[in-house]
Design brief:
Length: 168
């Protein structure tokens, strides 16, 4: 049961982050807080050592510092910065580079796809969906949380917490 909790908790929250960003263009603060608050408990349940847990914490802090700078420069949204940092906390240094690379590539494709879609008018039936109208608006940003969540889900099975939970 403990293993199932560890293996499902993070993916469910990532799926929620992606869908929230798609439909509302926001990633709730409570989601990042829940990820950060639950990590120490899940790390303990998975059997991560104190040293490994602290390294995961360092990965999260490093990504927070970088993404906060990106947010301050206006390159990404605050929710994206917090989600990237909270994800890095869970993923740790072992898969951090792969996570960031996949997120960057996926985010680039997502941005290009949205730019292309925004150049053509939406079909009539889509006008009944306010979230789609907002997403189609050229003044609206990119729901980068989708790329972050997808990248996190792609590398999570290779993360130390996942592997530790399965070996316990």
């Amino acid at each position: 049961m403990t293993e199932a909790l560890i293996l499902v908790f993070f993916p469910l929250l990532m799926a929620y982050a992606a869908s929230s960003d798609l439909f509302t263009m926001t990633i709730p603060n409570r989601l990042a807080l829940l990820l950060v608050g639950a990590f120490p408990v899940m790390a303990w349940l998975a059997g991560l050592s104190l040293e490994a847990t602290l390294l995961h914490l360092a990965a999260g802090v490093l990504v927070l510092a970088i993404t906060f700078g990106m947010f301050a420069a206006g390159w990404i949204g605050g929710g994206d910065a917090k989600l990237a940092a909270a994800s890095a906390l869970w993923l740790g240094f072992g898969v951090l580079f792969e996570y960031l690379l996949i997120a960057a590539v996926a985010g680039g494709f997502l941005t290009l796809a949205l730019l292309a879609i925004r150049r053509v008018p939406l079909p009539g039936f889509a006008s009944r969906w306010p979230w789609l109208l907002h997403l189609h608006d050229q003044k609206t940003g990119v729901p980068y949380g989708i790329a972050l969540a997808g990248a996190a889900l792609a590398v999570y099975p290779s993360s130390e917490i996942w592997l530790s939970a399965l070996s316990g």
